[in-house]
Amino acid sequence: MAANAAPITATDSLSQALKANIIPNQEYLLQGSVLDSAVEVLLHRLRGLCDNVDAGPETFDDQEVCFSLRDPNQQSTPLTLRVRKALDARDMPYQLRYIGQPDLGDKNRPTVVRSSLDIACSGMLIEFLNELGCRIEFEYSVKGYMFRKGRMKITVAKVFKISQSSMPPEPISQSYLVELSPALLPLSQSKP
Fold it and tell me: Which domain of life is it from (predicted)?
């Protein structure tokens, strides 16, 4: 490397990896919401339709923190990373997630298609990201149910503001977030 060459940033490295298909996962995602008053009907229907009908849905209670890493030259959009930890299963590893920008190629497609990378990490992840220069943008907790049908995963979850005091978390809205996504597909299988 030449002495006067600009250093390669984490954002540049990730962008190059995405362009070279080193990170080949594509996520297809449908999102919606259901009012609190109708969530029991949805849960009942999902119990009947999904594979885990005998055991019932899996429950989860997670906290998610969104970090951004800005280019020192401010020439590109910041790199966004999400860290999720299970509040109800403390022995589970932290999850570091990169989610790319949605693919805007086909406006007739009702799904969101985007690059995605998930990595299990140790509990030192937040300190590591802070040392890299990442800033916390926002955080929230999410509590809900997860259903499976073949390769698809359906989550029905309530999103909560994180309180700085000892008060219980406050719901962000009077509805549940509903997401349907299949297992991640390698990029070679995701293009028709």
Answer: Eukaryota
End-to-end Cα, the chain, rounded Å: 40
Question: In whole angstroms, what is the distance from residue 36 CA to residue 174 CA?
Answer: 6
Show Cβ contacts of residue 158 under 8 Å, excluding neighbours closer than 6 positions: 142, 143, 144, 171, 176, 177
**Predicted confidence band of residue 1 (pLDDT cuts 50, 70, 90):** very low
Regarding pTM above 0.85, the answer is no
Decide: 178 and 32 in contact? Cβ < 8 Å: yes
Provide CB contacts within 8 A for 171, sequence distance 6+.
Answer: 158, 159, 160, 161
pLDDT recorded at residue 191 = 47
Closest CA to 145 of 160, 131, 158, 130: 158
In whole angstroms, give the CA distance from residue 188 to residue 53.
33
Banded pLDDT at 145 (limits 50, 70, 90): very high
Question: DSSP class of residue 2?
Answer: -
Question: The tokens 């349907």 sit on which residue?
Answer: 180
